[in-house]
């Protein structure tokens, strides 16, 4: 039996059944009088039951387009995609019934009461009224909006609206929850509350697929992720694996007077495994950041500020693409 050959350290999600499988998946948009624009350029990935799978990348990388293909709202134009073993082109309604979707833009009915937004969604899925009522109560409790159930949506804060959208997406008890940039535009505290709810869902074993350009979000929540750039997958793995594969253990961040940056970086050549000169700072990739800083100073360089930190997914992205993730 193949299952016996699995390494014992593999997380449960790594052994789960494949729920989504993409092979050479592409999306081209026709452009009048021009070559078609390729938003997704032949990507391969799979998502297993119970895992939190992330698409990390900058604006325009093709993350939302991929989500929309999985959500059966935008047909692929090349390659193959199976969701629950079914084809989105032929089995859209059957797939959608088992998915929950939190789109990038809130699509709540702001004139309605909070709970009615869930009721309408429940009816869309053909659920009995008693089931809708029971789930609405439970879900509003879960997203900490029970006390706002009878309020109109409009005056709610951005974070509350996002949580309501998450509650709404769960009304059909989906097997997979798709979240397109669930925390974009929220202030840090509101982001934290949303993360916390997503983390609860993860603990309950809900399969989550999310896109984000926040590396800390991806690092904390995702079991596995792909780094997307310009419609392609640049790397795939668990966050810690990607960091270990593409980066040194630590990064030394140095700030010099801006007109001395390039010259200072040149003087520091050879100290670190790799040096990146950004518009406002110099990054030196070294397993021992403090040692690198000592070596920098030994060469007579005096940075305005120096910070040693561990490598992050942001560094992975920079290493892979030569660009920063969030400008
Ligand atoms: N309907 C469309 N017609 C033409 N081009 C499109 C369409 N939808 C998306 N694109 C283009 O495809 C590319 C990928 O867009 P997509 O929204 O998937 O990126 P993203 O990674 O989700 O970025 P963002 O964080 O901005 O949502 C972009 O250049 C975008 O302008």
Automatic annotation (TrEMBL):
Keywords recorded for this protein, A-Z: Antibiotic resistance, ATP-binding, Cell membrane, Membrane, Nucleotide-binding, Translocase, Transport
Cellular compartment(s): Cell membrane
SMART domains (UniProt xref): AAA (SM00382)
A matching Pfam family: ABC_tran
InterPro entries assigned to the protein according to its UniProt record, in alphabetical order: AAA+_ATPase, ABC_transporter-like_ATP-bd, ABC_transporter-like_CS, ABC_transporter_ATP-binding, P-loop_NTPase
Domain of life: Bacteria
Alphabetical GO biological process terms: response to antibiotic
SUPFAM superfamilies xref list: P-loop containing nucleoside triphosphate hydrolases
Gene Ontology CC terms, in alphabetical order: plasma membrane
Membrane topology annotation: Peripheral membrane protein
Domain ABC transporter: 20-255
Molecular function in Gene Ontology: ATP binding; ATP hydrolysis activity
Keyword Chaperone assigned: no
PANTHER family per UniProt: ABC TRANSPORTER ATP-BINDING PROTEIN (PTHR42711), ABC TRANSPORTER ATP-BINDING PROTEIN NATA (PTHR42711:SF5)
UniProt similarity note: Belongs to the ABC transporter superfamily.
Protein name according to UniProt: ABC transporter ATP-binding protein
Origin organism lineage: Bacteria, Bacillati, Actinomycetota, Actinomycetes, Catenulisporales
């Amino acid at each position: 039996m193949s299952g016996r050959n699995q390494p014992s350290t593999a997380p449960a999600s790594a052994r789960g059944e494949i729920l989504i499988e993409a092979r050479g998946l592409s999306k081209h948009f026709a452009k009048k009088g021009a070559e078609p624009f390729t938003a997704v350029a032949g990507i391969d990935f799979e998502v297993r039951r119970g895992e939190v799978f992330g698409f990390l990348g900058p604006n325009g990388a093709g993350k939302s387009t991929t989500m929309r293909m999985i959500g059966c709202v935008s047909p692929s134009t090349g390659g193959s995609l199976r969701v629950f073993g079914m084809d989105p082109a032929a089995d859209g309604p059957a797939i959608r019934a088992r998915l929950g979707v939190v789109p990038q833009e809130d699509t709540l009915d702001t004139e309605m009461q909070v709970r009615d937004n869930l009721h309408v969604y429940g009816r869309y899925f053909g659920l009995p009224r008693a089931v809708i009522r029971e789930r609405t109560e439970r879900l509003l409790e879960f997203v900490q909006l029970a006390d706002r159930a009878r309020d109109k949506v409009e005056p709610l804060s951005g974070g509350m609206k996002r949580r309501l959208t998450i509650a709404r997406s769960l009304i059909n008890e989906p097997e997979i929850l798709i979240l397109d940039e669930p925390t974009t535009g929220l202030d840090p505290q509101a982001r934290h509350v949303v993360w916390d709810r997503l983390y609860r869902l993860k603990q309950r074993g809900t399969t989550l697929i999310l896109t984000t350009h926040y590396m800390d979000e991806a690092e904390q929540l995702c079991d596995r992720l792909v780094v997307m750039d310009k419609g392609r997958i640049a790397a795939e793995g668990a966050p810690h694996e990607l960091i270990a594969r593409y980066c040194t253990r630590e990064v030394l961040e140095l700030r010099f007077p801006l007109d001395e940056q390039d010259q200072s970086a040149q003087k520091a050549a050879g100290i670190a495994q790799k040096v990146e000169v950004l518009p406002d700072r110099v990054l030196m990739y070294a397993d021992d950041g403090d040692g690198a800083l000592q070596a920098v100073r030994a060469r007579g360089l005096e940075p305005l500020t120096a910070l040693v930190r561990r490598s992050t997914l942001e560094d992975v992205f920079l290493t892979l693409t030569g660009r920063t993730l969030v400008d």
